[in-house]
Design goal:
The structure is a homotetramer.
Chain A lengths: L4 E8 L6 H10 L5 E3 L20 H11 L2 E6 L2 H7 L5 E4 L7 H9 L4 E4 L6 H11 L6 E5 L15 H10 L3 E4 L8 H14 L3 E5 L17 H17 L2 E4 L7
Parallel strand pairs in A: 1-8, 1-9, 2-3, 3-4, 4-5, 5-6, 6-7, 7-8
Chain lengths: ~250, ~250, ~250, ~250
C-alpha cells in the first residue's frame, strides 16, 4: 500500500573488529539493506579499544561491493568524518557529540542522511536545536532516543518513551529508538523494540554480535544473531498492525 | 483460548465530583467492569480540593448497585481505609504512600486485591520491597508504573518503560502503567498505552472525565469519554497480536 | 551577642541498639543537649532490623534522667507516634513520610518542635506544602535537606545545597542538612557540614556510632565518636566567622 | 605563608560585547589577574548571539596590554582554538564539549592551563576520563563543577557539592565551582561561593556584568560589579579560616 509507512531496523556490531566477524555476520544476513558498524569508537577511557579507525575502510569498501548494503557509521570528529566520507551512506552522530555544533555543521554539508543521537541528559529543546544546526531538510534527519540517565541501578539508562511520542507529535523528523544503549541489557531489547514501534517510532538501531561474549565493546547489550532473527520475525508480524511495513533487507525494498 | 492473558483497563475520573458526573460517565460506559474514581485525594497543597471523602460513599454504593461495577479507589490513610473498606473492591495505594509501610500492612490485612503505585523516584528494589510489606500472594498485587521525575520540562513525568519490562521479567506481580500521570498530557495517553501493551504490561490505569476542561483536578491529562472509546477500540484490535484479551467491560468477562 | 544566631548539631546513632552503646556514647558526650537516635527504623526491606521499637522507651527514659538531654527521634507511623509521645522532645519525620499528610497532621497536633526531612525527589514546593500540613508556627518546624537521588554512583545521594539556600531565602523555616544520608559516606560528612554552614543552614543532623564497623544499620556513613569530636572543634571555630554560635551541649546553651 | 593554598576567583562577563563594556569593567577591577570573558559562545539555538568571535581578538589584545590581566576564554571548536590561541592564557572547555575528545587532545597540545567544565549529567568517572584525554600534568588542569540537571524547577541546575568533595579527595586536579551556571540565579551566587570554599574547592568561576539587565546572554545569573566587590570582600575574610589565601588581583599575587 502506498500510504503505509516504513519501519526501519538498522543493526550491526558496536565495533567492527575484523573480516571474520563481518563474514560471519553477512552469512546470516546477506541481504541487509542498512548495515551499521563502528569504525571509530568514542570511549570514555582513552585506554579502551577505539575501533579499527582508518584501517577498517578498505575492509568495508570490499564488503559493500560484495553484499550491496548501505553503511551507517558514527563519525566522532573531523578526522573520522574525512576518513569515512567515501564509505558511509548514513552519518551517525553519537550522544557525546550532540552539542558539538561545529561537527554538526560539517556533517550537514555532506548532504547525506544523518542519524543524530540524543545526549545523555539533553532536553528535547536542545535535541531539536542540535538537529537545526545540521541545516538539512527534516526528511534527511533522524533523531534517535537512546535512553536518559536515571537513579535506577538495574539498567544503564531509561528509554524516554515520552520523548519518542513528543518528537513525533511536534517535529517533522524521523524518530528512532536504540534499545541496546537504552537499557544496556540484551534481555530488554525485544520488549523495548516492540514498545518503540507501538509508541510511533519510525525505526530501531540495534547492536548485534556474532559472539556477544567475546565482543570488544558493549557485549552485555548485544543480541546474538539468532535473537536478531527472532526479533525481525516478531516485528514483521507486528508492523502491519501499526500501519507499518518492516524494512531491513534489500528484498523488503520493493 | 485458555492460554491467552487478560489486558485490563481501569479507568474513571481522577476525582468523583457529583452524581451528575457519575451518571454522565455510566451513560457512555454502562457495562464497565472496574470503575476507578477518587474519593480521597492526596493533594500537594492542603488548600486544594481533597475529594468528596466520606460524603461520597453512599453515592458510590448506589452507583455500584445500579451498574454492577467493581470499585477501585485510593486510600490515603487509615481513616480513608476505614471509610472505604465496605465500598472498594480493589485498594489503590498512591505514589506518595508507597513508603508508608504501616498503611501497606493494614491494607494487606483486608485481603482484597491491591494496586500499588511506584513512588516518584523509587528504585525498583524499594518498589518490590514495598509490595512485600503488603504480605499478600503475588496474584493479589498489581504494581503500577506511573512515571519518574526527570529534568525534561515538556512533560510531567517519564514513563519508565524499562521498569515495566524489568518487573515483568523478575517478579510475579502484575504490572500496570498509568499513562495519564506518566505524562500529564492527554495527547500522549494513547501512544503510551500502546507502548505499555507492547512492552508486556498487564493493564492500564487511565483518567477520563466527561468534561476535562472543567475537572476539579488533573484536567489536562484526562481523556474525554469519546477519546476513551477510541482507545478501547484501538486496544481491542491490538491485544490479540500480543496474545492478550482486552478486558474492561462486564461483557468482556466470559 | 544577642544578634548572633545558633548553629545546632543534632547527632547520635542511626539506631539505638542497647544500653552499652548508649553509655559508651554518653561517656564521650555527657552534656549533649539534643540526642538523636532511632527507636523505630523504616527499612526498605521488611527483613532488616527495625529498631528496638517500644522496648527501647524505658532505656531512653532512664538515659534522659541521667544525662538531661532532649530526645530527637523519628516517628514512622501512628503506633510509633503514640509510643514515643512521652519520651521525644523533637519529632523527626523521615523522608519516606514526607507525603504522609495524615501523619503530619497528627504530629502537628502534639505542638512539639518537628524536624521534617525532604522526600527522595521531592520538589521544594512539595516540601514546603508538606510543612504546611503540620500546621505549626514556622519557628517550630525545621526542614532537613538529606540529599536527592542522582545518576552518580559514587555516592548515595547529592546534597542539594541550592535547596538549602532557596529555602532560607524564601521561607521562614529553619533549614538543616543531613550530611550522613546526603552522601552515605563517612569521609564526606565533615566537608559537607562546613559547606552547609557556609551556605546558610541552621544546623546539622549527623549519624555517629561508637563502633561504626559493627553498626546494625548505615555503618558506612556513621562518624566514629572521635571524628565527631573533631568536627565539633572544627565547627566551633568556623561558626563565629559566619555570625553563628555553635550549640550542641547543654553548656553551650547559656 | 608557604603552606597556605590559594583560592582563586576568575570572573568576567559571559560574553564580551564591546569596548565600552570592557572599559567599564576594568574601571572597577583595574588589577584583575585573571579575566574571563566569552568571545565564542556555544548557544543551544543557532539563532542566538554567538559572541564577537574573531572580531574580538584585537579588542582583547589591546585590553591585555593596558591592564596586564591573563585571559581565560572558552574554545568551542577547532576554529576558535586556532583564532584564540595567541590571546588566551587559560583555555576553558565548556560542558557541551566535555566529551569532545578530539578537541580535548588538541587543547592539551598547547600546554596551557586548562579549565574543564563537567558535562550536564556526566558521571565523575567520565569527567576524570575526559581530563585524561587532555594529557597534561594534573597541576595544569582544573575541573569545574557547574551544576547537574535535576527535577527541581526553582533553579537551573543543582551544584553537586558532593562531587567537589569527591574530586578533591580522589584526584590531583584543582577543583572549581561555577555558582552562576550552577544556579542560574544571581541571588544564590554568594552563598554557593561560600559553600564551595568551605567544601574544599580551589576557586570559583563567576559571571558578572556591568549592567546585568541588558546582558546579551545569561543576564539573570550575572552579578553586578558592586555585588562582585562585596563577594570579594566577603571571601577575603573567609579564606584564612579555611587555610586559604584569596587570589584574584595582580596585587594579591606576591
Amino acid at each position: 500500500m502506498t500510504d503505509e509507512q516504513d519501519f526501519n531496523i538498522i543493526f550491526g556490531p558496536c565495533a567492527i573488529e575484523n573480516l571474520r566477524q563481518l563474514e560471519h555476520f553477512f552469512k546470516t544476513f546477506p541481504d541487509l539493506e542498512l548495515f551499521r558498524g563502528g569504525l571509530y569508537k568514542m570511549r570514555t577511557s582513552k585506554a579502551d579499544f577505539q575501533g579499527l579507525r582508518g584501517d577498517g575502510v578498505d575492509l568495508l569498501m570490499n564488503a559493500k561491493k560484495r553484499y550491496g548494503f548501505k553503511f551507517v557509521s558514527e563519525v566522532v570528529d573531523f578526522e573520522s568524518l574525512a576518513v569515512l566520507e567515501g564509505v558511509i551512506d548514513v552519518i551517525q552522530v553519537g550522544a557525546r557529540n550532540m552539542y558539538n555544533y561545529e561537527l554538526l555543521r560539517a556533517v550537514g554539508k555532506l548532504e547525506k542522511p544523518v542519524l543524530l543521537k540524543r545526549a545523555f541528559s539533553a532536553t528535547l529543546k536542545e535535541f531539536i536545536n542540535a538537529a537545526e544546526y545540521i541545516s538539512l531538510p527534516p526528511e534527511k534527519i533522524t533523531l534517535c532516543e537512546r535512553g536518559i540517565r536515571s537513579f535506577e541501578p538495574s539498567y544503564r539508562n531509561v528509554v524516554d518513551i515520552n520523548a519518542v511520542i513528543f518528537l513525533k507529535q511536534r517535529t517533522q523528523y524521523k524518530v528512532f529508538v536504540d534499545p541496546s544503549h537504552g537499557s544496556g541489557a540484551r534481555e530488554m531489547v525485544s520488549p523495548l523494540s516492540r514498545a518503540a514501534l507501538a509508541a510511533g517510532a519510525d525505526g530501531l538501531l540495534i547492536e548485534v554480535h556474532p559472539d556477544p561474549q567475546s565482543a570488544l565493546s558493549d557485549g552485555p547489550q548485544a543480541l546474538a544473531l539468532s535473537d536478531m532473527h527472532q526479533l525481525i520475525n516478531d516485528l514483521e508480524k507486528l508492523c502491519p498492525v501499526f500501519g507499518r511495513k518492516l524494512k531491513w533487507s534489500q528484498k523488503s525494498k520493493e
